[in-house]
Amino acid sequence: MSKLDWSKYPNFSESELACKHTGKTGVTPEFVAALQKLRTAYGKPMKVTSGFRDATHPIEARKATPGAHTSGQAVDIAVGPGEDAYRLVNLAIASGFTGIGVSQRTGQPRFVHLDTLPRKAVWSY
What we know:
Elements: H1 14-17, H2 29-42, E1 48-50, H3 58-61, E2 74-78, H4 83-94, E3 99-103, E4 111-115, E5 121-124
């Protein structure tokens, strides 16, 4: 498990950011601090649907190269349609998140992917 001082991040827990496949926690302190800053600005709960993913996680194992979640610098946040997603994306950009993916397809889970990798990108699923 990580050596983060989780008391600094009152709106997140180690277990919710851990890999759902292995239970390992690989999030970086800088990333969790950025996530907490975003949560404070957002002012409402942010349900993490996917945090850190070990390279053996089924989603990552299917990829040619492990994705952002394996870096410890990415999460997916559940959002409702419309204004919530728009507001979260705007606040994420203002908070320094550099990778933003939006999934808002009808009949699919709605979420916003956020990461702090060293590039700027926005995409849809």
